[in-house]
Structure formats: C-alpha cells, structure tokens
Write a structure and sequence with these properties.
Layout: E1 12-14, E2 25-26, E3 38-47, H1 49-58, H2 63-77, E4 89-98, E5 112-115, E6 124-133, E7 138-147, E8 153-155, H3 162-169, H4 173-181, E9 187-191, H5 196-209, E10 214-219, H6 225-230, E11 236-239, H7 245-255, E12 261-266, H8 274-278, E13 281-289, H9 296-305, E14 311-314, H10 322-332, H11 334-344
Parallel strand pairs: 9-10, 9-12, 10-11, 12-13, 13-14
Antiparallel strand pairs: 1-2, 3-4, 3-7, 4-5, 5-8, 6-7
Protein name: L-erythro-3,5-diaminohexanoate dehydrogenase
EC number: 1.4.1.11
Pfam family, one: KDD_N
Length: 346
Amino acid sequence: MPMGDKYGTHRVIEPAGAMPQTAQKLDNDMSKLFDNEILVDVIALNIDSASFTQIENEAAGDEEKIKAIIMNIVSTRGKQQNPVTGSGGMFIGRVAKIGPALASRDLKPGDKIASLVSLSLTPLKIDRILAVHKDIDRVEIEGQAILFESGIYAKLPDDMDERLALAALDVAGAPAQTAKLVKPGDKVLVLGAGGKSGLLCCYEAMKRVGPTGRVVANIHSERSRTYIQDMGLAHEIVVADATKPVEFLTQVLSANKGHEFDIAISCVNIQGTEMAAILPVRDGGIVYFFSMATSFTRAALGAEGVGKDVLMIIGNGYTKDHAEITLWELRENPKLRAFFESQYVK
C-alpha cells in the first residue's frame, strides 16, 4: 500500500479535508494497511467516562442496548466517537501488523499495547462485543483498530495486570498535568475526586503541595469518602453538587478556611459544572478542565460573566511522559494500587 497522511486524513470519508477527530466518518476497512499504519487486534475498549455515562443513561442501564448503541456508533462512523459528547476513550490490544515505513519502531507483532490517542479519531471495526463492565466503563470486544504514524501508544508493563494498566493509562493526562501545574504551597480543589482521574490527581496534588499546601477533594456522595480518607488523598473532603455552583462555592471555600483556591481540577463526568470549577479560584489562578463533559463555551462566557481572570486549560489527554508518570503513581503508592486492582482488575 502507499504511504498515508501522517495524521490519518487519508482515512477520512466525510467531510473532505477534515481531521480524523472532527470527521463524521472514517474508513475502517482493515483489509488495507497503509505503509505508515499499525494494525491492532483489539481486546478491550475503555470508553470515556462522560461518553459511557451518556450511553448507559440512553440505554436505561440495559447491557444489550449499550452494546447496540456502541455497535451502531462504530458501524456508522467507523470509530467510537459518541455523537452526543464527542468523546471516545482508548483501547488495549495486540499488534497484528506494522507498516514497513514504521518497521524501525521498538514494536513487533504480538506486543500488547494501550493506545494513548482517543477512540474519537481511531479507525475501529467491532466484530463482536463480548462483555460490558458498566461499573468501570469497559467493553471487551473482538475487533481491530488502526494507529496512524502520529499515534502514540504505550507497551503494557510487565509488572502489573493489563487491566490495571489500562485503567490508569485511560486518564494518564490528568495526573501528569497535575504534576506540572501544582507547586509547593498551592491550595488545590479537585472536583469529581472519587473517580479514576480524580483519585490520581488528588494523589499527585498531595505529593506536590508539600506541608504548606492544601488539597480539598469534592465528591458527589458519601460513598467515596472512606477510601479517599484511607488512602490519605486529601486534607479535606466535601460532599457537594457541582451543578449548583453558588451552594458549591460556599461549601468548598469553607473547607479551605474561607480562602479561594490557586488551582481547580475538574474530573467530573456530567454537564453543567463549569462554574463550580471557576468560582472558587482566585484571580490569576488556574482551572484545569480534564472532563470531556465540559462546555468550553460555557466556561469562557461564564468566567467573563462573573469577572474571573483565571487561566483555563483544556484537558489535553497527552503531555510529555504522561504514561510513565501515571503508572509510577501506582508503583509508589501500594494503597492506591490495591484500590485500583480491587475496582478495575475484573
């Protein structure tokens, strides 16, 4: 086969000229492999939390309906990109073929890898859905996917279960960005602290703020309080509804001794929480939106409307060394690793 475009535009069917992520439909014909593509036999998909929540709600929790919705998305679009949330997820699989132009890479057929690019831009074909794990947003499948020349991936480590690695790598951008943003002495608010990304961000924030900083973990219900306390992932834990920003503001500021925060990190998986992340942050502070449920229009106009001069960062799922940083968190914290194993190694 000829060389394809480095970024995968040769797989775009419509609209012409679009990038794979914004395209409405991709070519997912796995019988043709371009010289700079990698073909992977997919084992499992980790669906983005906001996307899976929307699909599960649409299906009223019925597993067969969840399967049907996912199959329809992939057959219609050639990729797993939720048409409502626009988000995807990631996969793990075994390398089937490597295009000759990429033969110099440290990769060979049979290697198990995790994709570190979104399913929203990844050509995907599902032959069969084997199982749906609603509690961890994971779908086991038989199918194949394509990684483009620009696509990043991680070889699965030898010292941990692949399901554990997948759970962590699925949200690797969040804790790695937290490690870069948080400084000693910072006052940090983590919204949605009870989920995967929230827990990892809390751990990284606690490590970075030092003895003079403070980390406040926001959770939606009491269910998460015990394990956050047991793992020592926050100085204070606040049960508050982030969809009610004024009430939320009062509760989280109280947990921070009445002071505004230097940084807010949003890991929530529902819509309408932008102002809850913005309001508690001081002028000149940082709001990091990792959640794919975020409306950046609402965030931008909302901050303007309340006169908040804050730096708002889009939750890019990639930052340099993010896979290594995130997996290292599990290696250096036995309690966090044990919790992840209890929840995601199923």
